[in-house]
């Protein structure tokens, strides 16, 4: 205690103990997780450490911008897609560039299920070198193809002779062609659940660049992350070189909200994000897809949706705690608040027009935020307000980088000399010979 007291006296008296605690744990993390020792880097000792100003605009390395998109939820991905369409419109207006794309303003993206499909549409490189889809086009894609991806026919004849998986696979084949994970513009993380290893498997651009046995075609990635276990069943896919085989079902089984996985990946991927050492170095936008009405829980597939939504809320709570005092500016979650909605949440038999109307209402709702040890609270800002404010922060970071000497992100485009997989992928010898 005396050492801590002396340390506090040596610095500004207004410095809060929780900041000190955070920095001490950052030092321990660097030492034990990343192998730094006092000899390797003497500046990591507490005696020589100067507290960091969490809100300092003078940080020369800037912030890594991360987009995270939930699984289908109650709106089959439409709420997240509409959120992205509004955000892209905001970015075009505020940047003065009428052709700006969402992918230009984020450094990494993670998406599960419907969110994985949106991530693939928005971040896969097209023939002109730009993203394949704008946010409006991605929204239209989900609307036009909702029944093929999420709502297969209940007719026994059609389900036997025209499997839903075939319709979805044909759709993704037509959309993505021969594009693979290597053809994405930024680091991409898209989870599924592998029935062979009984573990999550995360498709990762970083891993694909290391070796072909972690590279997959984008059409297979989208099929795997959206393979609903009740409607479609498992789908078997192989890596580009055929050495890695997985039997996949929907990413929502284990990772409906991929925010925690995305943050972990960025913080541990020092090759591409060399100066990102903690949550204060991040700008994270997490998009939910609405909450179902409790009356939908009348079948195994409905319980799957409810379980996914519950898991998403738990991740939101945990991430909110991790961000602590910098949560208000560095972490934004867009989700229906489940309290003030006129439609009393979304029921299972909604048409696409109903889901569009419900999503529009959710965006206009007052936002709900997780509070440390106190559950959730409704705040004054609406979800649309939060998207506008966050868009402004993205623009500021984009402008800052134009005059910055140090790179915030160093994207890999070729394999390194010493192959090393990222923290994202989970494999065992049962599913891979790599």
What would your notes on this structure say?
The chain is of the alpha/beta class and 434 residues long. Helix content is 41%, strand content 13%. The chain has helices spanning 2-10, 17-33, 78-95, 114-123, 135-149, 156-161, 164-176, 205-210, 218-225, 252-255, 259-268, 300-323, 327-330, 352-364, 383-401, and strands at residues 64-69, 108-111, 188-194, 199-204, 235-238, 245-249, 282-287, 331-334, 366-371, 375-382. Strands 1, 2, 3, 4, 5, 6, 7 and 8 form an eight-stranded mixed β-sheet that branches. The longest helix is centred in the C-terminal third of the chain and has 24 residues, at 300-323. It is globular, with a radius of gyration of 22 Å.
Offer a quick outline of the entry.
The protein has helices at about 1-10, 15-35, 80-95, 115-125, 135-150, 155-160, 165-175, 205-210, 220-225, 250-255, 260-270, 300-325, 325-330, 350-365, 385-400, and strands at about 65-70, 110, 190-195, 200-205, 235-240, 245-250, 280-285, 330-335, 365-370, 375-380.
Task: Give the radius of gyration.
Answer: 22 Å
* Strand segment count: 10
Describe the biggest sheet?
8 strands, mixed
Average pLDDT figure: 79
N- to C-terminal distance: 50 Å
Form type: globular
Specify the number of helices. 15
Q: Secondary-structure element sequence?
A: HHEHEHHHHEEHHEEHHEHHEHEEH
Quote the beta fraction.
Answer: 5-15%
* Class derived from helix and strand content: alpha/beta
Helix content: 40-55%
What are the segments in which pLDDT stays under 50 over at least 5 consecutive residues? 1-18, 31-57, 153-162, 417-421, 426-432
């Amino acid at each position: 205690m005396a050492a801590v007291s002396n340390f506090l006296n040596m610095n500004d008296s207004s410095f809060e103990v929780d900041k000190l605690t955070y920095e001490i744990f950052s030092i321990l993390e660097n030492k034990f997780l990343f192998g730094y020792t006092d000899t390797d880097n003497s500046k990591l000792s507490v005696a020589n450490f100067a507290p960091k100003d969490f809100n300092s605009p003078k940080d020369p390395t800037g912030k890594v911008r991360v987009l995270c998109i939930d699984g289908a939820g109650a709106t089959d991905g439409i709420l997240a897609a509409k959120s992205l369409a509004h955000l892209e419109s905001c970015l075009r207006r505020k940047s003065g560039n009428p052709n700006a794309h969402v992918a230009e303003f984020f450094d990494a993206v993670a998406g599960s299920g419907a969110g994985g499909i949106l991530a693939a549409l928005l971040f896969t490189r097209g023939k002109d070198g730009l993203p394949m889809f704008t946010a409006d086009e991605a929204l239209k894609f989900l609307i036009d193809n909702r029944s093929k991806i999420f709502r297969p026919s209940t007719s026994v004849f059609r389900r036997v002779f025209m499997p839903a998986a075939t319709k979805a696979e044909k759709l993704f084949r037509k959309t993505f062609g021969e594009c693979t994970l290597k053809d994405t513009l930024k680091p991409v993380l898209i989870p599924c659940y592998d029935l062979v290893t009984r573990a999550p498997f995360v498709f990762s651009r970083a891993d694909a660049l290391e070796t072909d046995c972690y590279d997959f075609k984008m059409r297979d990635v989208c099929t795997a992350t959206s393979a609903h276990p009740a409607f479609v069943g498992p789908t078997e896919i192989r890596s580009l070189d055929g050495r890695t085989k997985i039997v996949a079902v929907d990413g929502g089984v284990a990772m409906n909200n991929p925010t925690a996985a995305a943050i972990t990946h960025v913080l541990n991927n020092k090759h591409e994000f060399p100066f990102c050492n903690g949550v204060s170095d991040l700008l994270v936008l997490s998009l939910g897809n609405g909450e179902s009405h409790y009356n939908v829980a009348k079948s195994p597939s409905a319980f799957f949706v409810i379980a996914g939504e519950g898991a998403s809320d738990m991740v939101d709570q945990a991430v909110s705690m991790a961000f602590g005092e910098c949560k208000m500016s560095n972490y934004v979650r867009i989700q229906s608040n489940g309290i003030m909605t006129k439609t009393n949440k979304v029921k299972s038999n909604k048409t696409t027009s109903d889901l569009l109307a419900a999503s529009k209402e959710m965006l206009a709702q007052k936002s709900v935020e997780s509070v440390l040890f106190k559950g959730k609270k409704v705040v004054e800002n609406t979800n649309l307000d939060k998207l506008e404010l966050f868009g402004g922060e993205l623009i500021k970071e984009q402008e800052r980088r134009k005059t910055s000497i140090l790179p915030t992100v160093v994207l890999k485009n070729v394999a390194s000399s010493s192959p090393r997989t990222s923290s994202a992928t989970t494999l065992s010898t049962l599913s891979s010979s790599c």
